[in-house]
From TrEMBL:
Entry-linked InterPro entries: Hexapep, Transf_Hexapept/Carb_Anhydrase, Trimer_LpxA-like_sf
Pfam families per record: Hexapep
Identification of the protein by name: Gamma carbonic anhydrase family protein
Amino acid sequence: MLVEHLGQSPRIHPDAVVAPGAVVSGDVTIGADCQVLHGAVISAEGGPIVLGEHVIVMENAVLRASSSDPLRIGDHCLVGPLASISGARVGEEVFIATGARIFNGAVIGDRSEVRINAVVHLRTELPPESVVPIGWVAVGSPVEMFSPDKHEEIWARQLQLDFPGYVFGLDRDTPDLMVQLTERYARHLSRHADDHPIG
């Protein structure tokens, strides 16, 4: 389904295929020979999303952009089933495996691999030809990679990146952080009330 959001409609190259059941919403450009499979969601939440040529977005993947963090995926990339990418810059010939998560402000260099269930955290930069192993977490710039059992080390680096401040503009030490966060984010998302299906 194609959806107009905030007055913007998706632009799909005539050689691209968007499967029935996929949702493409807002300021989204999909290049030649892209394939967007069943259940995928590509949602431009106030910022643009651009897919280059020959990009494959597999079943139930979620691609999002915000006004502060657009999303750009270069040519010849594959986004695996259940992967999630939010407001990142992804180079060319990148493999993002099943269940991988890439957060706002991340940069993924050309020919990199983010393997099954791996995480590239907020504002993390992977140089070209990087590999984030299965289930590992990449954090920071310069990047450090941690196995999932290194929670304290991951948290120490992650804390410096200030997720609530960067993404939501809120101080982590606010006593009612989740109250403010959910109310603010709900107001932002309520803009979908005026969306219009266009195809």
